[in-house]
Amino acid sequence: MQQDDEYIRTQFSALRQQGQRHRDIAEGLGISEGALIAAHTSAAHSGSLRATPLAPAWRDILAALPGLGEVMALTRNAACVHEAVGVYGQGGADAEDFSVEGANFTLCINDKEWAQGFAVRENGSKGMQQSLQFFDAGGTAVHKVFLQANSHEQAYAALLKQFDGVLQPAARAAFSSPTKQPIVEKPDAQIDVAGLREGWMRLRGAQGFEPMLSRFGVTRLQALRLADPQFAQSVDASCVHAVLDVAARDALPLAIRVQNVGAAQTRTGRVHRIAVMGPWLNVLDPGFNLHLREDLIASAWLVKKPSVNGLCLSLELFDTEGNLIAALAGVRQPGKAEPCDWCALMDTLTEESLPCAS
Predict the structure, then answer these.
(1) Which of 233, 305, 331, 342 is the most buried (most CB within 10 A)?
(2) Are residues 209 and 168 in the same domain?
(3) In terms of residue numbers, what domain contains 303?
(4) Cα-flanking dihedrals φ and ψ of residue 103, to 5°?
């Protein structure tokens, strides 16, 4: 194993100098990103990247993050990267999830999917970069926290001391053989479609949507396919580019969410600079970056969820395997219907007129 780690570190150093990113280097080596980071935990090596394992106290670590001050929170999946600069807020927990309402972003985690965390130091062309990086059992990153120039380094040092841990043997073994868990979908014939449609119609807010999916044993994309057409419509998979362009032009605030198996990160606010770089559609704003692989969007859906204040409208993007890539929604005021500007923008994706707040 030590020889394997040395080989990984040598290859990483060479490829990093060529400007490659961690995820791409790991993919090129045929290992997970978690295995790439784990190879740099040895105290004996003296490379540009050093990693220290963290204790698996995920909610306690997140609860300590407000003390770091301003940081950059990163959540991604294979097709989209969501980066928001802000301050973590205090979290609230229930039996399943842990949610953080931060300044400039909201984070909701499913920590049952978190297997290993690291404190990472990398000395690169832009100086020293320090981060906390968390991975699932297959070594795929679920969430990362990057210190900024004005972050509180003393609080960070105290956090590392408090949550110093060891490399979890089970996680390391799984990291070495990364596998993708495909979404398993029941045959449509086994789904109570009438019950699903009735449950959808009786929703009283978006927060009831995920429990409804669980109750009827359907995946998200399957539910959209089987829903009453008044609540879910397939739209042009390339429409997200135009939606972002119009939102930027008209100063229309958006709630943009990106998720993976272990975390969902949402940023609410206006977008300004929309730019295409190769296959990537980007939002490049101070304090918020979004990087979306347009070529990996297999389908897009206009989704409508009933609430006590009218329909909640969202544009949802999926990959070829049925994974949710990203979701875009308007920003509605408490107790109000959807903003008319957002409804009008969604109208352009269909042939109907949607009710809105006047």
Answers:
(1) 342
(2) no
(3) 188-347
(4) -80, 110
Of 265, 272, 256, 273, which is closest to residue 330 (Cα–Cα)? 256
Residue tagged 């090596």 (tokens) = 45
Total-model pTM: 0.93
126 assigned to some structural domain: yes
E strands, the chain, are 49-54, 70-76, 80-87, 91-93, 98-101, 106-109, 116-124, 127-135, 141-147, 232-235, 254-259, 263-269, 274-277, 280-285, 288-293, 299-305, 312-318, 324-330
Are 55 and 192 spatial neighbours (Cβ–Cβ below 8 Å)?
Answer: no
Is the sign of the CA dihedral 336, 340, 345, 349 positive or negative?
Answer: positive
Q: Are 34 and 73 contained in the same domain?
A: yes
Contact 31, 138 (CB under 8 A): no
The 8-class DSSP code of residue 125 comes to T
User: Cβ(257)–Cβ(326) under 8 Å?
Assistant: yes
Name residues whose C-beta falls within 8 Å of residue 85's C-beta, 6 or more positions apart in sequence.
Answer: 70, 71, 72, 73, 104, 148, 286, 287, 288
Q: What total number of domains does the chain contain?
A: 2
Q: pLDDT tens-digit profile of 88-142?
A: 998 776 656 788 888 889 999 999 999 999 999 999 878 899 999 999 999 999 9
